[in-house]
Give the backbone structure.
Amino acid sequence: MKDYGFIRVAAAVPALKVADVKFNVAEMCRMTELAEKKQVSILLFPELGVTGYTCGDLFGQRALSDAAEDGIKTLMECTRGKSVTVIAGAPVAFRGRLYNCAIVLHNGNIKGIVPKTWLPNYNEFYEARWFSSGKDFLNRRSAGTGRNLVNGKDTVREGFCEEIRYAGFRCNISPNLLFETGNATFGIEICEDMWTPVPPSSYLALAGAQLILNPSASNEVLAKHEYRKSLISQLSARNVCGYVYCSSGFGESTQDLVFGGTALIYENGSLLAENERFSLEPTFTAADIDIERLDTHRQKISTFAAVSPDGTAAAEYSTLYSRISTGKPAKTDFSAKLLRHIEAHPFVPSGEDDGRCTEILSIQVTGLASRLSHLGQCTAVIGISGGLDSTLALLVTVLAFDRLGRDRKNIIGVTMPGYGTTGRTHGNASGLMSALGITQKEISIAPACDRHFLDIGHDKHVHDVTYENSQARERTQILMDIANSTGGIVVGTGDLSELALGWATYNGDHMSMYGVNASIPKTLVRHLVKWCADRHFGDGAQNDKSAKEILYDIIDTPISPELLPADDKGNISQKTEDLVGPYELHDFFLYNLFRNGYSPDKLLFLAQKAFAGIYDGDTIKKWLKTFLRRFFSQQFKRSCLPDGPKVGSVSLSPRGDWRMPSDAKAALFLEGLDD
């Protein structure tokens, strides 16, 4: 089974009784068995889950700490023969001090013990009364060399730690421990550690941890949960990591506090899974974290790990941490079930997201308004086809002129019917220009193309690439010349999806003076046109209402360059998605190839998950091959793009996010897909 770079993690909030170690450990063992059945590789329990967090001065009783150590022995035996790595919380006595610790267990062994660094001693918290800080192990003078007993062998390690004998094992104890399982490295911070100005997770991430685990005992007060979620979201985003959070729940003492039993799993700022708080029953929350994606993002961010929080060079800083292998992860069958949502339309805002759409349009409008303001009182010339792309470009231009307080009559819309223009698109183009109150021109390209075909000796009945591209270049020539004659600029209409596929005529619709749609993929173009129809043209004058009706018909029109003659009924015969494939697939491929650096086989795997029941595997594979071939072969068109605003996280501008030689080969990617 292939892991595709994923690892399955879980946060378990078991039933609990304060100071009843046997009961608590039995519940933890039961949930460990469940985790093994669910093919979980890393299982996190709450802070001090072996004893309960609210034991108070009972922590000072040797009977409790001894019982906790016996409980860890029992839990350790429960892990024997299993693949899951368990993180359990317990008080640990060491050299006359007591520490609030997370203990890492795997296959009947203790792999390491991590003490809590920052002890809250304010408001309802009183931890410094009972526990000492893990900072004790970070003093350079007192730090030992440390050894870890793994399968009967000593493994020398560097960094700040001490050696402890606990539950019958010799192991390392220190906040500066990193644990490795499969392709994942995880570090641990405990509850309050996360809430500090410079949390240990920042250091752990810079030292190489892609996962941060946080066993907590965080009580509930009004509005705290939303703040907690925003804090974890920001930590996982800033550290480009996965973050697993598990807090104490039902069974902790309610003498003064209530614990909601929160379980949260985040990845790079996004929530993957959460449980229902205040449950009276145990909860088990699992998700699959994409370690490969996190590594890719870290590689792309040049400032990540450039300098550590204390100013030390990153390479030197990372040596201060000990790395301990916990063993092989679970053999998880991610193909059977993937515990994470795969967004089929990653570019499109979810639901009726007014804020996101407003921001996208604002970036486009501001970019064009700034360019127009720089040029002075000039016209904007746009070719209007009655299709989605030119419609969005026109709407952006109208909004830009309105923002600048300029007369819409200085927007010159040109419809240029040719051999394949249908009555539907021609009518929508003309109607929309009239409804928006811009200057309207109509120039047929057929006579000029007829003359051109005679000049170059091409039979106009041969509908080849020359036949199609000649029309596109003729249209561009008309727009450029009108812009020259009116002192204006040509506003480009081509979108990001077309740039990725090279679905544009070189020096034809490929060219303009400012491409407002250059960062807008086709799936988002459709969404924005509908949003504009509903928000900007839903009320008001009669012409606005007709504009809305026209916009809705444009949305329903098949995507086509209309370069081939219409069918016998006068309908569009050349449908783009029949030729190059569904744009929703290509946009999915583009986003995940660009943003996450996924290999072709992973793209195929995830697309099958995202589009299950819509496209079968063979269909997805066919269009993925088409995407890869075209993406590589058409780079030369992207190497000389006109100016245009970056809108989202994916941009193919050669001056910005994407630099690739035009003669790069796709063979490696296609071979990987075939394998």
In short: The chain has two domains: 6-137+176-325, 354-674. Residues 140-158, 540-544 have pLDDT under 50 and may be disordered.
